[in-house]
Amino acid sequence: MNIMMDEMNNIALEEQSERERSVRRKQRMEEMRRRKKQQELVRRLFIPCVAILAVCVLFTARGIGKLVRKSGAQKRAEKQAEAETEIKTGTKASRTQQKAVVNVAGCPAGDDIAEQITVWIADINALPLQTVGGKSDEPPLRATADEGTESFNSEVVSQNGIFIDVEEKRILGQKDAGARINPASMTKILTVLVAAEHITNLDDTFEITIAITDYSYVNDCSNVGFDVGEKVTVRDLFYGTVLPSGGDAALALAIYVSGSQEEFVRLMNQKIDELGLSKTSHFTNCVGLYDANHYSTVYDISVMLKAACDNSFCREVLAAHTYTASITEQHPEGIILSNWFLRRIEDKETYGEVLCAKTGYVAQSGSCAASLAAGSDGKEYICVTAQSTSSWQCIYDHVELYQQFLPQKSG
User: Fold this and answer.
1) CA-CA distance, 256 to 259, in Å (whole number)?
2) Left (φ > 0), alpha (ψ -120 to 50) or beta: where does 98 sit?
3) What are phi and psi of 223, to 5 degrees?
4) Helix, strand, or coil here: 237?
5) Burial of residue 74, with CB atoms counted within 10 A of its CB: 0-12 exposed, 13-18 middle, 19 or more buried
6) How far apart are CA 295 and CA 368, in angstroms?
7) Are strands 352-362 and 380-388 parallel, antiparallel or unpaired?
8) Rg for the chain (alpha carbons), in Å?
9) How far is it, in rounded angstroms, from Cα 91 to Cα 97?
10) What is the pLDDT of residues 259-299, one digit of tens each?
11) 181-228, pLDDT tens digit by residue?
C-alpha cells in the first residue's frame, strides 16, 4: 500500500511539474539564436593559444631582457649579419635562411634565447588538451558467459537483461542479452561520456534556445525545466541529462559540443566503434527517442556504462542522488534534480550498494535501467535490464538480480 501511495504521489508530482513546464513554454516570447559549430572550435583553440601567449609574454617581460643583455648585443648582430650575408650570396638561398632571421618574441632567430623559447612553445603545443574527467586508459569491458552463467529467476519481469562481474569479466546471468532493443534514455550514458571527452570547462555557460525546448516538448521528453533564454552552466547540462533524464539538457549538451545534434551523433557512433560495438549498436539521436535505426543490446549498454564509470566526472554525475542547478534569473533558487532510481533503491536489500544508474523508457522497450554496484566482497557488478512493465518493477528487477548474484553479507 505504501509503495502504491509513493508511486501515486510521485506521479502527481511529475504531472504538476509537467504542467508548470507547459505554462513556461506558452510564455516564450522570442526565438534565441543557436550557437554555431565554429564557436566550439574557437573555444578549443583559445586555451592553448592563451597558454602560448602567456608564456611568451612572461619570458619577454621577466627573463628575456636579462638574458639578452647577458648574451651580448654584438653577438646577436654578428649572427644576424652572417645570416643575411649567406642569403645574399646564395650560400643557403632558400626559405630556410629567410626564416632564420625572423625574430622570436623579439629575439633574432638563432639566438640562444629564441631557441629556448621555440622549445618551450613546442612543448606547450605537444601537451594534450585535458578534457572533463580525462580519457580513461582502461580497455573496453569484454565479458563472457561460461558454464556457470545462470538464467534469471522467475521473479524478474524484464524480458532482456545481463548481470556482469566486472573484475572477473564474467557474465553471471543473462536473459536474451544479445537481442536488439531500443535503449531509450539509457542512450544518455553515451551522451555524457562523449560530451565529457570533448569538453574542458564545466563552468562555461550555454543559452537555452526555443528550438531546444520545442524539440523536447514535441517529442514528449522528460525535461529539466530550463526556460528559453536561460543561461546555464555546462555542469548543469550534464546533471540535467542524467538525473531527471532531461531531453532539453541532452540536446543542449550536444549542441554545445558539436554545434548540432547530427554532428554530435556522429561522435557517438565513433565512440561506439571505439568500444567495439558498431556491429550491434547504432544511434540516431542523443536523447533516446525511438527510431528503427537507433538500437543496442543490454550487453552493449553494460560496456557503455563501464566506460562512462571509468571517466571520473561521468561517474560522479551517474552516482549523484540529487543536484541543485545553478542560480539563474529564471530560477533564482536553482532547480533541484533527483535520480529517482538511486533514491528508491538505496533502502532496498541488494547485498551491496548501488553506486551509479541511468533509467529509460519508450513504449518499444518498456522500462529499462543500467546500474553499477559494489558488492560486499568489494568487487563491482553491472546490471542492465529492458522490457519491464513499470519504473518501479524495473527497480524490483534490479534488486532481485543483485540478491540472486551478489554474495550475501557475512555476519
Assistant:
1) 6
2) alpha
3) -135, 155
4) helix
5) exposed
6) 13
7) unpaired
8) 28
9) 9
10) 999 999 999 999 999 999 999 999 999 999 999 999 999 99
11) 999 999 999 999 999 999 999 999 999 999 999 999 999 999 999 999
Q: Where are the alpha helices (DSSP H) in 27-151?
A: 37-58, 65-71, 73-89, 95-100, 112-126
Distance CA 152, CA 173 (A): 6
The grid coordinates of residue 382 equal 553491472
Contact 225, 334 (CB under 8 A): no
Q: How far apart are CA 54 and CA 117, in angstroms?
A: 12
List b or e across 170-181, with b for residues whose CB sees 16 or more CB atoms inside 10 angstroms. Answer: bbbbbbbbeeeb
CA distances from 266 to 136, 261, 308 (A): 21, 9, 18
Gap between the Cα atoms of 156 and 158, Å rounded: 6
Written as one letter, the residue type at 112 is D
pLDDT band (50, 70, 90) for residue 335: very high
Please tell me the distance from the alpha carbon of residue 398 to that of residue 345, in angstroms, as a whole number: 9
Q: What is the DSSP code (8-state) at residue 245?
A: -
Local structure of residue 200 (DSSP, 8 states) = -
Nearest to 325 by CA among 236, 264, 401: 236
Catalogue the active-site residues: 185, 188, 245
First and final C-alpha spacing in the chain: 31
Q: What confidence tier does 99 reach under pLDDT thresholds 50, 70, 90?
A: very low
Q: How many CA atoms lie within 13 A of 42 on its CB side?
A: 7
What does the alpha-carbon distance between residue 191 and residue 221 come to, in Å, rounded to a whole number? 15
Report the C-alpha gap between 254 and 265 in whole angstroms. 8
What average pLDDT does the segment 238-265 reach?
98
Q: Does 34 have pLDDT greater than 50?
A: no
